[in-house]
Each structure stands twice: as structure tokens, then as C-alpha cells.
Write a structure and sequence with these properties.
Elements: E1 3-6, E2 26-32, H1 40-47, E3 55-61, H2 77-89, E4 94-97, E5 99-102, E6 106-109, H3 113-124, E7 130-137, E8 140-147, E9 154-168, E10 178-194, E11 199-205, E12 212-218, E13 224-230
Parallel strand pairs: 2-3
Antiparallel strand pairs: 1-4, 2-5, 5-6, 7-8, 8-11, 9-10, 9-12, 12-13
């Protein structure tokens, strides 16, 4: 059963034949928790997306289930805030786990493989209004975005993630299990704001070898317009 909390109170299927109108990959954000018994199947589904160039999977561990017996070691309050931001933008009164948000626009129960596949296929067929280029220059990340036409205000997000880690769960709904997690978001930075016209250029220092993801997303939890990754 999926876990749901009110905001008032606080088998992957290959996309055979999916159209790729633009090289910008589809971003899949999984809101998950180690304290949620229905989340491991969604965590496995996200892991099966690894290695694909047309999908960027991201696991954001939330903290609102920590009170039921196990503190998620990857959870951050800012990830809970991001999930609630999506809910507010969609005029929903609750959040739940496991939830996948596809390209910042559509959400789906994260362990329903067919529904997830259908949404990814729809987004993969849509052209991106932004050409996004990222590269490492020594210890510096350089970002360039170009809009074919004015897109409106957008934020430039820079994300780091851990590719794979195992965790022994000692308490809570998953007590006694050793679970494998993938694409674990470890850092999320807003590099800058862009008015959506012409060209954006930005740069920031990089430390470590973790993969880097850059998103161009409409402000206030709007659609993700472009994404790029450096593994």
C-alpha cells in the first residue's frame, strides 16, 4: 500500500520505439523513504533505468516517515519541501510515497511500471525548447543554455547523486532488510535564475567524482524544459 500524508497536517518496461525528438533526456524524480514498506519496489524500478541515456533517474529521500521507527539516512528536509512544492503547484492537498514526478509535470505511483513507462514515453516524444550544454573544465562545471524562443523565467539546478549504496534497515516497516538504493541525490544547488531569453551561461566549482545533473526548470515547480548529465 502506498503511504500518504496530508499537507494540511504536515518490472521496468523498455521504451521500444519511443520517439526521441530531442536529445534532452526525461527526468524521473522518485520521492521515497527507507521507512516506507511500499517503496522498495519503486526503488528497484528506478535502479532499472540506470545506463539509459534517454532517462535521468533521481531518488529524493523524504523525512516525514522518519517518526515511525527508522530515520532514513539519505533523507533531507529540502527534498520533502520539493515534493510539497510540486503538490502545491498541482493544487493537491497531500503527498505520498513512492511517488515519481516525470519532467516536473506529471506524477504517478512509483511502483506502477506500466504507468511510469507510459508517461516517460509521452515526454520522450516532446521536443525541448532549450538546448542545454554542460562540461567539466578542470574543477569547474560550465553550463550553457540557449532558447529558440523566450520561455519565461527558469531556474538552473545543479544536482549530484550517489550511483549505488546498500543500507541495512534495523527498525520500522522494512526492519531486517538490506536494501539497495540508486541515484541517491546528495546535493541540490540552484546555480542561477534565467529570464528565458537568448543565452544563459553559468559556472560553479565541482568537488568529487559523483555524477552531475543540470536541469532547466520553470520557476515555482514548473516543467523541466531541458536536462543534461555528466557521469
Amino acid at each position: 500500500m502506498r503511504r500518504l500524508i496530508s499537507l494540511i497536517t504536515g518490472t521496468w518496461i523498455a521504451l521500444a520505439g519511443a520517439a526521441q525528438a530531442d536529445p534532452s533526456p526525461v527526468v524521473v524524480e522518485l520521492f521515497t523513504s527507507q521507512g516506507c514498506s511500499s517503496c522498495p519496489s519503486a526503488d528497484r524500478l528506478l535502479a532499472e533505468m540506470a545506463g539509459r541515456d534517454d532517462i535521468i533517474p533521481l531518488a529524493l529521500h523524504i523525512d516525514y516517515w522518519d517518526y515511525i521507527g527508522w530515520k532514513d539516512v539519505f533523507a533531507r528536509p529540502e527534498f520533502t519541501a520539493r515534493q510539497k512544492g510540486y503538490a502545491k503547484a498541482a493544487q493537491r492537498r497531500s503527498v505520498y510515497t513512492p511517488q515519481m514526478v516525470i519532467n516536473g509535470q506529471h506524477d504517478v505511483v512509483g511502483n506502477r511500471a506500466m504507468d511510469v513507462t507510459d508517461l516517460i514515453r509521452k515526454h520522450a516524444a516532446r521536443p525541448s525548447p532549450v538546448t542545454l550544454t554542460i562540461r567539466r573544465d578542470g574543477d569547474t562545471l560550465r553550463v550553457e543554455a540557449v532558447a529558440e524562443a523566450r520561455i519565461g523565467s527558469a531556474d538552473i539546478h545543479v544536482i549530484r547523486y550517489l550511483p549505488l549504496q546498500k543500507v541495512a534497515i534495523k527498525r520500522g516497516e522494512n526492519a531486517g532488510k538490506t536494501l539497495t538504493y540508486s541515484h541517491i541525490v546528495s546535493d541540490w544547488t540552484v546555480l542561477g535564475e534565467w529570464n528565458g531569453a537568448g543565452r544563459y551561461r553559468g559556472a560553479m566549482a565541482l568537488k568529487g567524482d559523483e555524477p552531475v545533473v543540470v536541469l532547466v526548470q520553470e520557476r515555482r515547480y514548473g516543467p523541466i524544459l531541458a536536462a543534461a548529465r555528466l557521469r
